[in-house]
Design goal:
alpha+beta, 5 strands
């Protein structure tokens, strides 16, 4: 039986050309340019519930204190035990710091959650007051006015 010569194509016809490789790199780059911001936005939205949870929790503590004392504190916002309830960085928080400001001789307060450091939530500031008026004052690092809700996605309530 006769052995056929090697039928492989010449070297010039094997593999990918530089143009084909550059087209693939361009397509991957375009996909990454679209996917990465969307993924970061998804991660950021996952960090925001921390602020909403702590603001709601602090608000409940202040209301419990108010029921017993007819004020929200004398020199600082207080919890049901009468001690300061609002700490800037409670145990277990990663993405926000918290603050409380008393006004009206302890008859009103404003709770604030501010995004911290190099987290994706940096640049977000949310507030709530004794009337449960929720506002967003800064969203993705941009000042926001007139938003009477906590923005999570987009710029509309």
């Amino acid at each position: 039986m006769a052995h056929l010569p090697d039928q492989r194509p010449p070297l010039a016809e094997r593999g990918f050309t530089l143009i084909e490789l550059m087209i693939v790199v361009a397509i991957v780059g375009i996909l990454a340019a679209v996917a990465l911001p969307s993924y970061n936005d998804y991660l950021r939205r996952g960090q925001l519930p921390e602020a909403f949870t702590y603001l709601a929790n602090y608000r409940v503590q202040l209301e419990q204190y108010y029921q017993d004392n007819r004020n929200y504190g004398t020199t600082a916002c207080a919890d049901a035990s009468g001690t300061s309830a609002i700490t800037a960085a409670p145990a277990g928080t990663k993405y926000f710091t918290y603050g409380c400001a008393l006004t009206g001789n302890g008859q009103a307060y404003t709770l604030t959650a501010t995004g911290v450091g190099d987290t994706l939530s940096n640049g977000h500031v949310y507030t709530v007051n004794q009337g449960n008026d929720k506002t967003t004052t800064s969203y993705k690092g941009t000042a926001v006015t007139g938003k009477t809700c906590w923005l999570v996605k987009g710029s509309e309530c």
